[in-house]
Amino acid sequence: MKAYSEDLRTRVAGACGHAGATRQQVADRFGVSLSFVTKLLRRQRAGGGLGPKPATGGRARCLDAAARALLVARVGQQPDVTLAELQALLVAERGQAVCLGVVWRVLAEHDLRRRKKPATPPSATRPAS
Questions:
Q1: What is the pLDDT of residue 3?
Q2: What distance in Å separates the CA atoms of residue 81 and residue 76, rounded to the nearest whole number?
Q3: What is the dihedral of CA 81, 83, 84, 86, to 10 degrees?
Q4: Could you count the other beta carbons within 10 Å of the beta carbon of residue 37?
Q5: Mean pLDDT of the chain
Q6: Which stretch of 4-8, 43-47, 114-118 has the lowest confidence by average pLDDT?
Q7: pTM
Q8: Is the predicted pLDDT of residue 60 greater than 90, yes or no?
């Protein structure tokens, strides 16, 4: 979701400063939520200004670059390795227990798809063309 513009934030804060204006009236007038108005005014009083808070960047990765490189290298050596085998490799080599989703996301980041072994060997006879 995109942050509200600086102009809108300034107008909302200014409208709240007028005598007799309630927060709910200001929220209805500008088409924003009451909680936005309340948080905006609280932030302004605390000296944080009216601008949006900086983005946090999300959760930190649970695997460092060396662990991710280990997974990518193993898939390069053995393309038909399973996610469970890669999970066990991380536990054995690095002592890190992670879920299968973490392993899957590392492979997806590097555009690596799981390759399966063929179920049976190729036929010795070729069909006539």
A1: 86
A2: 10
A3: 70
A4: 22
A5: 87
A6: 114-118
A7: 0.51
A8: no
Residue recorded with tokens 């601008």: 51
Longest dimension (CA), the chain: 91
Q: How far apart are CA 70 and CA 87, in angstroms?
A: 11
User: Which positions ≥6 away from 73 have C-beta within 8 Å?
Assistant: none
User: What average pLDDT does this structure show over 90-111?
Assistant: 92
Residues contacting residue 12 through CB under 8 Å, at least 6 positions apart: 26, 30, 32, 36, 37, 40
Per-residue DSSP letters for the chain? -PPPPHHHHHHHHHHHHSTT--HHHHHHHHT--HHHHHHHHHHHHTT--SSPPPP---SPPSS-HHHHHHHHHHHHH-TT--HHHHHHHHHHHH-----HHHHHHHHHHTT----PPPSSPPPSSPPP-
Here the tokens at position 63 are: 């695997």
